[in-house]
# Entry
Amino acid sequence: MKQKNTFLKNASFLMIAALVSRVIGLVYRIPLNAIVGRTGMGYYSFAFSVYSILLLISSYSIPMAVSKVVSERLALGQYRSAHKVFKGAMIYACIVGGIAALVALFGAPYLIPQNQPNAIPALQVLTPTIFLSAILGVLRGYFQAHNTMIPTSASQIIEQILNAIVSVLAAWLLIKYLAADAVEEATWGAAGGTVGTGAGVLAGLLFMTFVYYINRGTLRRQLKRDRTGVDISYREVFRIILLMVTPVIFSTFIYNVSSYIDGYMFSSIMGRHRIDDELISATYAEFSSYYMTLINIPLSLSSASSTAVVPNISGHYARGEISKANQKIDEAVQLTMFISVPAAVGLAVLGHPIIQLFFPTTTGIAGNLLMIGAVSIVFSSLSTITNGVLQGIGKPQIPVRNAAIALVLNVVFLFCGLWFTDKLGIIAVLVATILYSVSMCILNGIYLKKYLGYKNEFRDSYGKPFLASAGMGLVAWGSYYGLYHLLPHNIVCLAVAVPLAVFTYIILFVAIVKAPEDQLRRLPAGNIIYKLAKKLRLYK
# Structure
């Protein structure tokens, strides 16, 4: 029971941090978009798609890999080996992060689409950020392995706050002092926006370093308690890290390279159709900077749940406790679907007014994308969790293979959708991403059943949130558009419709779906929801 509570607490910490971080990321995009403009946000997005790939290779895989390897040794009481893995991972991060940073610096002209050269400065500014992120990833993974998620959560929030402040300020300053025309405003504005990313990562790294420093005494005492007599050479450490990290790198690379390929193909092929380069950039901004920014908020919660569940599943699997591992998977899926399903329904129903609220410069394309693509939240969330589980049980090659298959399907569909006609445009990119996430869910599910005998609890995990979300969607649509007919003010209507929709979802989930008390208390803010339900006499 203690382990269950620990997992849920850790997942909640990470989810809250992820939500706060994403909300900050959404809010600061409003002034950044106003300063930089749609074209500048397009340059920003092209640079970030390359940066994200290099980050995945150099650092994204490190927290999960370190968390898994260290947690396995901690579960067996091998504290010295666990700490040596940490130090070896730090050396690895410095080397790989340094190489990835140099690739970004000197390879930028070749990595950015040829018809988008104004995105190159933004990518080059991100060079030191790639190196620092690798080191930060090791520290986060080490504390996650100790089932301590608060440092990671706090560092994520600190990172985003600094990112928001510096991004807006740097974009404004660079435009003011370096830009001579509209094109240069978009170019230097995009570069300024990426300065904040580096400032945020540096702040997060300093915080995690401080946390490690104040916990040195506890870590030393832990090492002294090691009675296993098991030691490990650095040669073995690097072998373990490479064996663990390399498949994870391939998995995360393939899993996320689709966004880079999608952007590159969209820009290149639409250019062949003689579409104006600036229009291409502005349209892509509707997808990557507007649509994806909102979609990524609920997706970050599934990533947090996956991060929290990996150490638990790794420990249970290492001890042969398959049923307990499956129980943790159920908890992670239920926790994620409780949020992902209503988020998908809500964004689909209120897509246009929400986009208009945060991104007034939109042409309406992003709202259409949100109405169609919100369903991808459910599939992407589930694929993120199943990826983490397969990596946690020592089967990282399976997500790699599945991601490669999904990527091929993505590329083939996108090529056909763009090459033979210019009518689909950005819609082809959207459908390709949905196809990718659905493919991953199906393929990962097959292997979870094969190795763990895992079967989805459809009723608890999907059925209950869907039923409650359907009612919520009707209330959200009716309240917004009904009120808008009487009072055509977007902010006011959303201020009424969104809280009413959230309240409706909770009530329906508890009353109509009849969620058990123990299940309710396991959810985010579960105790608060239960107390509210008691006051409303939904529970006896």
